[in-house]
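Consortium newsletter contribution from the modelling node. Members have asked for a concrete example of what our holo predictions look like. Here is one, prepared for the zinc ion complex that several groups have been discussing at recent meetings.
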Amino acid sequence: MTEEKKQLKRKSESGYYYSRLIPKNIICAFTTREHDYGLRNAENFHEYSNNLKARLNFFNRFGGKPENIVFFEQVHKANISVVEKKDCGSGVFDFRNALRSSDAAVCQTADIGLCILTADCLPVFFIEPKKKVIGIAHAGWRGTNLGISVRTVKVMVNNFQADPNNIEVYFGPGIRVCCYEVGRELLPFFPEQIKKRGKRFYLDLVKANITRLKKAGIKTENIFDAGICTKCNNDKFFSFRAGDTYKRMMSLIMIKNK
Ligand SMILES: [Zn+2]
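And here is the predicted structure:
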C-alpha cells in the first residue's frame, strides 16, 4: 500500500491526482467534497450553475477544454463507449446529453477528457502507455458483477490493439470493505469478496475488480489503488452511504497533446 500511496499526490484542495504516470502527458484526477460536480440532482438554477462552474474550473486546472469533455449516463450496467471527436461536449453543460446507457469509455484521441461522477461507487482508470489508449469506468456492485472493468480492457485490446501486459489500472476513492455493507443476496455474485463480520456482510469492490482484471491478463504490478474509503473519509469525500445522496465527485482521464 505504501508503494501505491506514493503514486497519489494532492494537487489542490479540490483535486487529487495520480502522479508518476507513464507517459506523463496523461491526466488522471479525481475531486474531493470541496465542490459538488453533479448536475442531475441540482435543486435549482443557482446550484446547477455553481456545480457547472466547479466543473469548468477543474477542467481548466488540467488544461481540458469543456467542449472536449464527455460524460456518461451511468446506469449501473456495463456498456462501454468508444469515444470520438463527435461525442465531445456530451453531458458537460446538460446531463441529459450525456452518452446514453454508458458506464465506461475508451478513447485514443488526444485532448478528449472522459469523466464519471461518483459518491461511493468506484472510479477505475485505465492506461495503455505504449498504444496511448485510455479508459474509465464507473464500477458499483452491479457494473462490477457484469464485468465492467474487464469489458473496458477488452475494448482497449480489440479496438486499439492495447496489450493487456501494458495496461495500468488505477482505483480512485470509493466505499471499501470496511463500510460497504451489502445484503446476503449478493453472496452468490461475490463469494470470495464478501466478508462476514458478526451478522453483517461487507463487499470488497476493489478486490472484486482486481480478481476479474487479473483473470483478464492485467499484471499485479500494474494495478494501483488510492486506498481511500469515501465513507471513512466523509470529511474529504462525498459518500452516498454517509448521507450524500445527491452530491457527486468527478473523475477525469485525458491524454494531453503536449
Ligand atoms: Zn470505510
